Fold this sequence. Notes:
The chain is of the alpha/beta class. It has a single domain (about 20-195), classed as Rossmann fold, CATH 3.40.50. It has helices at about 15-20, 40-50, 60-65, 75-95, 110-120, 135-140, 145-150, 180-195; strands at about 30, 55-60, 100-105, 125-130, 170-175. Helix 2 packs across helix 8 and helix 4 (about 75-95) runs parallel beside helix 5 (about 110-120). The radius of gyration is 17 Å and the shape is globular.
Amino acid sequence: MKSSNITWHDSKVTKEDRQNQKKHKSPVLWFTGLSGSGKSTLSVEVEKALFELNIHSYRLDGDNVRHGLNNNLGFSPEDRTENIRRVSEVAKLMNDAGILTLTAFISPYRNDRNSARDRFEDGEFIEIYTKCSLDEAEKRDPKGLYKKARSGEIKGFTGIDAPYEEPENAELTIETDKLSLEDSVRQVIAYLQEKKYI
């Protein structure tokens, strides 16, 4: 049952006030791509680079969030949609708090990513496609998930028996099967600097 009789209470401190205090903007960097494409690895290194630049940031990782906030969700299309809805709401709160937020979620459905984008003002949602061939992602297979999916142990696995809908207009496409990790990080930081987010 949905909540009723609720009212939004505004603060006297605005998002702009918080951003001015921190001396940087607070977009959400939405890393999307196949399992094994490098989303988490890249987001960890970008977060470290931002910290070294004195940028107040926080990283929301797909597996980490499923340990707590989303531990009641599975991997059906409906649960994936709810997973992304909840994460985008948390990212929106962090955006309002003036924190540059990094998210690393497969988020395989375009519609879910577009719904996440719609929660933010123009320019505050930066979709970063960690583009990697299925062959390379499967070779990496850091968690052994592709092997389990191929053997039928995992059903509905993105890229094997469930779709991944590539971004059509991502702000950044990082070809993680062609670029080094260092070059990938540099590309993200350069984008944020060029666009005056940091």
